[in-house]
Amino acid sequence: MELLHGIQKESGLPVQSHLSENQEEIAWVQRLCPWSKFYGDAYEHFGMFGGACRTIMAHCVHSGEEEIQRMKANGVFIAHCPESNTNLSSGVAPVRRYLEEQIPVGLGSDVAGGSTENMFVAMRHAIQDSKLRWRLTDQTLKPLTLEEVFYLATKGGGSFFGQVGSFEPGYELDAVVLDDARLEHPQPLSIRQRLERIVYLGDEREVLSKYAAGQRIL
Question: Superfamily for 175-216?
Answer without folding.
Answer: Urease, subunit C, domain 1 (2.30.40.10)
